[in-house]
Amino acid sequence: MKLTWVFKIFDELSAAELYAIMQLRNEVFVVEQNCVYQDADGKDQASWHLTGWDGENLAAYTRIIPPGISYEEASIGRVVTSPRYRGTGAGRELMKQSISKVFSQFNCTEIKIGAQLYLTRFYQSLGFSQTGPEYLEDGIPHIEMTLTK
Hints:
Oligomer: single chain
Shape: globular
Low-confidence stretches: none
Mean pLDDT: 94
């Protein structure tokens, strides 16, 4: 499957794009994962947003966070693939695109993420290494992971 990738700063997002992003994030992080938390955390406005579109359908999304906001390093967060696109390789392509965007956008050599624990192997397969102990975030086990260029 070939997705169309769009990379925009918050202020460039249309109302329809922002709605699709928030709808997908809520579908997966709140409803599917049964996790009540404040998704609109104030970081979106300072971040870049990578969307993967299949026509009019948002298939995959990440929030690209500049250094100094979540961590000292640049970060990738809110990594999500629509349930309808799982198993298609969209998630792997999403992360490859995201990693490339972080390194080129911020001219940095390291990316730090807070990964859901069950996705450790997935992130390791992309070159990330665990750099911190397991912790709970909104009731879900996470670990800090880092990728060095």
